[in-house]
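Today's session is about reading a structure prediction critically. Students often jump straight to the picture, but the first step is always the sequence itself: look for stretches that repeat, for charged clusters, for runs of hydrophobic residues. Only then move on to the predicted structure, which in these notes is written as discrete structure tokens rather than atom positions. Here is the chain we will use throughout the hour.
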Amino acid sequence: MKNIQSKKHPPEPNSPNCRLSHPPPTDSALDRSPRNQSTAPRLSRYRSPVPDPLFAHPRLAAVYDAFDGPRHDLPAYLGIADELDARRVVDIGCGTGCLAILLADGGRTVTGVEPAAASLDIARAKDPDRRITWLEGDATTVPAVAADLALMTGNAAQCILSDDEWMLSLRRIHAALRPGGHLVFETRRPERRAWEDWAADPGPVTVDVAGIGPVRQLRTVTDVRLPFVSFRVEYRFESDGAVLVSDSTIRFRDRDEIDASLAANDFRVLDVREAPDRPGREFVFIATRD
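Below is the predicted structure for this chain, in token form.
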């Protein structure tokens, strides 16, 4: 990863994924298949912190990896774990377990924390030998395991919307680490204005998912009220015509805000790097517990 020496930043790609839904409440994951148009059930009407249907609905969780594609972002985090000699790692917002599995393959003791039960089910299925401890929860419920390293990848930090929840998350992560342990997470640079890229190229994209068949995905930016950006992801399953919708909101924090919040929770920033697969688009913070 390239070190960022100054606070001048910018660029950003693909999906604006988020794991938690926050106010304002939305009717998400409505089944809009033709046969259910007149009686579409409200599968979820919720407030924070409820996992987005994108991760929590079993049918959507089952196709998540297929749409996410090759995880070119993960080798850099494995490298950081090696660099920090981290043997006990907590993966916060672990999703379907892609990074946690790779960390365990390297002989590390891994705890995966994820708020969406459907995603955890998929993660557990990838771990038949039960090498990993899988926990349903979020950054505010991370257990105190004396970890060497806590990770939040996939821009999971942007799913924490309120100041109170962000500060509580940092306090709980601090408690989960051993003295001198490290927190590493990524977040998009707000000045890059990634939402404009998403709005300019919403799709649709169709993927033929093994065992499921063709699924079409359409992403739409629905609201921009900085620092918050909301978007909708719609999936159509060609096998039965079912349409499922997931609404999400994420928060764009600038570097000064993140620096201040880390310092307020007894973290010391050691480095801020670029994500090598997304140059100029992300901050990657490396902080140590003081």
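Discussion point for the tutorial: The CA atoms of residues 36 and 242 lie 9 Å apart.
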